Amino acid sequence: MALTKETTALYAGSFDPPTYGHLNIIERAAKIFPKLIVAIGSSADKKPILTCEERMELLRGICSGLQNVSIESYNGLTANFAMHQGASVLVRGVRNSNDWSYELAGATMNQKLVEDLETIIIPANQSYCHISSSLVRELTSHGGDISSLVPPLVRQKITDKFT
Ligand code: COA
Asked: Does some domain include residue 152?
């Protein structure tokens, strides 16, 4: 696969909420690919605390400085959504060996679903390897400080949810 001016990559996730870890992957992927779609998908075993619209609003806010990034949402398979959007690359962030095994299986499956779809793994920056959205939710629910984990806009929204 060669990059062209039109190459579109898709970074899909739950983003409940988006964290500095996600933002770091978005910023780095936006430097590599001419177009990056950040999209909220749904996972069968997750019950989000933020609505899809709230998560989209947060993503729009934190990505507002990135001209080649657009925010979307979808239902169904990520590989199908990528195909419909004309995305030839799936971007995934990996924080540790557990993520790696999971992503390897996902990449294999997604390529079986859509043959030309490549998964590009971006290793998480070491400063963000400990962050997950559930950690952010857990800390917030107990009144913990999440300012080093999420951008201020997200902190405000998630704190409001728990008060
Ligand atoms: N920095 C910080 N946190 C990160 C991260 C990073 N770089 N990369 C992942 N995470 C965390 C997330 O915060 C999230 O934490 P949580 O579980 O505590 O909430 C966790 O890793 C998982 O990330 P998430 O964004 O929820 O991705 P996911 O792997 O659960 O995938 C979808 C979400 C929507 C992309 C996935 O479920 C999907 O593709 N659904 C559609 C159906 C489908 O196509 N399934 C795959 C078939 S092969």
From this structure: no
